[in-house]
Amino acid sequence: MKNMSIKATLAALLLGLGVSNSAMALDGEALFKNPAKGGCTACHGKDGKTTILPQYPKIAGQNEAYVLQQLKDIKSGARNNGMTAAMKGIMHLVNDEEMAAMAKYISTMAP
Question: Which domains are present in the chain?
Answer without folding.
Answer: 26-108 (1.10.760.10)
